[in-house]
Amino acid sequence: MKKAWNCQVASLSLSILTAGLVSCGTGSPLASQTKIYGGTKSKLGDWSTTVGLASYGRIFCTGTAIHPQLVITAAHCVQGTSNPSRLSVYVGDGVEGGQVEAQYLAVKVAFSPKYSRSPTGWNDTAYIVLEKPIDLPASAFIPALTDADEIAEVLQEGDASLIVGFGSRDDGGFGVKFETDVVITKVSDNEIFLGSNGKDSCQGDSGGPAFARLKNGDWRVYGVVSRGGACGTGGIYGRIDANICWVQEDSGIDLGLAEYCKNQEPEAPL
């Protein structure tokens, strides 16, 4: 799945990302590893809210629908998008090569105002509002992880997670939904470090989800693929809870988090 946006990709425009030739400071086409390590093809219909971001008919990033009309992805995937109508969302199991007919047009795209290359975390999170609702049952949409007790249960070093995406794989393929289990290696206030030892995300998985399963069997989505080094060595994921209140307010989409977000507001000074 994902990789190595350690080469200025975060500042590239959407048109460059979709051209299929991303350089890492060498002036040559992408030469770093293009693999999804340790992964397996998702069963047909699994993780249906893991979607592909497409432009000119080709998947270039991954995202997660957390509401029928709202997709969470990485800021670096959409930064520079001046015309949302050029961006569309694909829902399905993918096509080898990533050439797809995306079904849902974007009408609004925005990335976190806190997005920057800060040493304390990038806040590499964005949202896409869709023209029409995704045709999936309500039960398909996995809630974002916001509950403090649930966070304590599943976001600790050594805990298991699952990552999903359409990105490049170790067999040379791209564009089909794959998944792999990974282990949390570090936790900060707005980012999670995941994967190592050959299990990781790679190019094209940026913006895709990290899922955690609670003890009661329920799933939560908590991470957004941001960046990393060589594929297979582990990556860094933005925490959705660090920006979810901004997403709800700025998008105008009710995510049912009014009470949660109210409690997140800093107290007014005395």
Rg on CA atoms, Å: 17 Å
- So, CATH architecture of the largest domain? Beta Barrel
* CATH fold descriptor of the largest domain: Thrombin, subunit H
CATH class of the largest domain: Mainly Beta
CATH level-4 homologous superfamily of the largest domain: Trypsin-like serine proteases
Q: How helical, in percent, are the residues?
A: 10-25%
Secondary-structure element order, as H and E? HEEEEHEEEHEEEEEEHH
Global morphology:
globular
Sheet having the most strands: 6 strands, antiparallel, barrel
Total DSSP helices: 5
How many discrete structural domains? 2
Strands, total number? 13
Proportion of residues in β-strands:
25-35%
Q: What average pLDDT do the residues reach?
A: 85
Secondary-structure-derived class: mainly beta
End-to-end distance, in Å?
48 Å
Spans of at least 5 consecutive residues whose pLDDT stays below 50 are 1-35
Cross-sheet strand order for the largest sheet: 8-9-10-13-12-11
Question: How would you portray this structure in words?
Answer:
The protein has 270 residues and is mainly beta. It folds into 2 domains: 12-32 and 47-140, Beta Barrel (Thrombin, subunit H), CATH 2.40.10.10; 148-242, Beta Barrel (Thrombin, subunit H). The chain contains 5 helices and 13 strands. The protein has helices spanning 14-17, 75-78, 148-154, 244-251, 258-264; strands spanning 40-41, 50-55, 58-67, 70-73, 88-90, 104-111, 126-130, 160-165, 178-187, 191-194, 209-213, 219-228, 235-239. The protein has a 6-stranded antiparallel barrel with strand order 8-9-10-13-12-11. A 6-stranded antiparallel beta barrel has the order 2-3-4-7-6-5. The longest helix has 8 residues, at 244-251.
